[in-house]
Amino acid sequence: MARRNLSLYAVAAALACVATADTAFAHGIAGKRFFPATLATDDPFVADELSLPTISTIKTPASGDAPATRETDFSVDVSKRITENLGVGFGATYKQLRPDGGDTERGFDNAAVSVKYKFYQSDEHETILSGGVDWDIGGSGSKRVGAESFSTVTPALFFGRGFGDLPDSARYLRPLALTGSVGIGIPTRASSSSLNDDGDVAIERHPHVLNLGFAIEYSLPYLQAFVKDVGLREPFNQLIPVVEFALMTPLDRGRGPTTGTVNPGLLWAGRYMQLGLEAVVPINHQTGSRVGWIAQIHFFLDDIFPTTVGKPIFGK
Amino acid sequence: MMKSVTCVFASLVTMAAAFETGAHAFLDHATPAVGSVTHGSPAQVRLWFTEKLEPAFSTVQVQDRDGRRVDKQDKHVDPANPALLQVTLPQLAPGRYRVVWRALSVDTHVTEGDFTFDVVP
Q1: pLDDT at B3
Q2: Cβ–Cβ of B12/A299 closer than 8 Å?
Q3: pLDDT at A67 over 70
Q4: Residues with Cβ < 8 Å from A135, sequence gap 6 or more?
Q5: Which of A22, A47, A83, A138 is the most exposed place for a label (fewest CB within 10 A)?
Q6: Minimal CA–CA distance to A47: which of A117, A131, A120, A112?
Q7: pLDDT over 70 (residue B11)
Q8: DSSP codes of every residue in A229-269
Q9: How many CB atoms within 10 Å of residue B68?
């Protein structure tokens, strides 16, 4: 199974390489505002970018017969502009599950593909609005690591808003920006049934889920370049402190509690890549029992390959 | 898995180095400094960017509090430093001035911005 999954991903990666051989995308800029890529929540902009890798780890609590488990994920995400405002994405995650007192399980989670369209941008007000759909492809991952056999389709709205238009009296708040998304995860199957150890049929229900993610960031590059040169130099003048919130609320079918994390951290935006490191703080016991972390290396393909992979397939 | 990720990552970094042509030009620093107070009129405004600029399509102007342009309209990119954009100024009266710039990097990415500085006696 694992070997078949590796083959599947190798083919997908090869197709992705072929598909992107003549093109690329731009990172998120609206007026004076550069929106950095966030780690735990999705960005509002359509761009040519590659996150490789994103590594995260968190310990999930014991639940029923399942022991507490250390989950570590290795992810890759690539986005590609088709036109200036329309982009597609592909993501894959390799999971490692280490249950307390049990054997470690490894394998790919379900692959995901997405499409996003930016339908509004105001340079003056540093605002971006986009809509998109994410498709978590059921059955494309390994059941050993809990990959679902059914798909989940998540339509979502994405937003980004910089506060550079605040009045002079609040100029030190101008480097602030808010990005985020609101989406509904719609499973293609309402429930699944399986036989438990006693031979009884166990039914697991799959609710619709409200996914809410947002990030508050304070851009030191923005402070330095547009508000007040406070004397920061490299690498500190490229730091963006950020706090991300990633929340999930089941809406029906035996709805459970809201789960999620609050992630305070730092982003560093360079010429061709961005580095990110955040703590992952569970909001409640249902989410996790200890603080984890997430780290990412993110490439700006539009700057690395401006005339090939880094521009839209159609248009400028 | 980690070996594959490392291999792809190393390949990408190598390719990035090999194909490096430029990036977005962001303002690195300026004189007068962003948001600063200067004693007496500065002779010019100088903007240092993070990338080389296309001189013909990179602009800078200085406006007074009423939005009137006050610089000598002689903006130019320093031939010795293609990342330095500058414009000279007449004698400025005390007050607040706004520097408005637009930069086209050599890889054709456009960035723009503005900031203020104050002149005091």
Answers
A1: 58
A2: yes
A3: yes
A4: A112, A113, A114, A151, A152, A153, A154
A5: A22
A6: A117
A7: no
A8: -----TTGGGEEEEEEEEEEEE-SSS----EEEEEEEEEEE
A9: 8
Distance of CA A85 to the CA centre of its chain: 19
- B23-120: CATH number: 2.60.40.1220
Residues 80-99 of A with CB under 8 A from B: 94
List the structure tokens of A238: 């490229």
Residue B113 is predicted with a pLDDT of: 94
Distant-in-sequence, close-in-space partners of A241: CB < 8 Å, separation ≥ 6: A217, A218, A220, A264, A265, A266, A267
pTM score, whole prediction: 0.85
Which range is least confidently modeled, A138-147, A303-312, B111-120?
A: A303-312
Q: For residue A94, what are the contacts with CB-CB under 8 A and spacing of at least 6? A: A73, A74, A75, A106, A107, A108, A109, B1
Nearest-CB residue to A32 (from B16, B35, B112): B112
Distance of CA A58 to the CA centre of its chain: 16
Complex-level ipTM: 0.83
Structural domain count of chain A: 1
pLDDT of A152-164, one tens digit each? 999 999 999 999 9
- Alpha carbons A134 and B40: distance in angstroms, whole number: 58
CA B23 vs CA A243, A276, A305, B108: distances in Å:
27, 20, 9, 9
Three-point CA angle B26, B27, B33, nearest 5°: 165
Q: Which residue among A34, A76, A229 places its CB closest to the CB of B35?
A: A229
CA–CA gap between residue A59 and residue B87 (Å, rounded): 57
* pLDDT classification of A185: cutoffs 50, 70, 90: very high
- pLDDT class for A107, splitting at 50, 70, 90? very high
Q: Determine which helix (DSSP H) or strand (DSSP E) holds A98, and give its type and residue range.
A: strand A86-99
Domain that holds residue A15: 2-304
Mean pLDDT across A4-32: 47
CATH assignment at residue A292: 2.40.160.40
